[in-house]
Amino acid sequence: MSPILNQNLFLVKEHVGMFKASNNYDIYNPESNQIILNCRENNLGFFTKMLRFTDYKRMTPFNVEIAAASGEKLISVKRGIAVFRSNVEVFDEKERLIGTFKQKFFSFGGKFEILDKNEKPVATLQGKWTGWDFKFTHENKQLAQVSKKWAGMGKELFTSADNYVLQIEETVAQDSPQRQLILAAVMCIDMVLKE
């Protein structure tokens, strides 16, 4: 696993465009303001592109690759067509399954069960229906949070509508696949729960 993923703070900025079908993000170190990761959805099919401009956007498949700024692929996040709920698979740099996300029915604000490659629960991602505030928990302990507001370096930074901050707790072990799953789940918040 790349040492970049051992950081605890990530600023995610979505690429904005009027007629864009793909989901593309840059991930920054918020303290140095340097791009450390790129998230790209390449190779969209014609029909997927067309459906992205309709009410069926939330049902379309996706394949997002998270890569280091140098271009080295670190994580792939994939989903097929989703009818009622999403099942997402996460792969490492060698396309080995790390884990899956299973969207829960009837959850206010959105909810995912995050499972490891053996289908064992490692976290729950739960959002508030009132806004952009998500928490990763496991066994009543917070592992990470995603928010549009971040307090750091003596001031508060309010991010715009397309930016948010992932803060992973110090208790999440470095080089743990749990970190990869948390980062991958952040991409799913935008594409599955909030679009």
From TrEMBL:
This is Phospholipid scramblase-related protein. It comes from Flavobacterium sp. CFS9. InterPro entries: LOR_sf (IPR038595), Scramblase (IPR005552), Tubby-like_C (IPR025659). It comes from the Bacteria. Gene3D superfamilies: LURP1-related. One of its GO terms (cellular component) is plasma membrane. GO terms for molecular function: phospholipid scramblase activity. SUPFAM superfamilies: Tubby C-terminal domain-like.
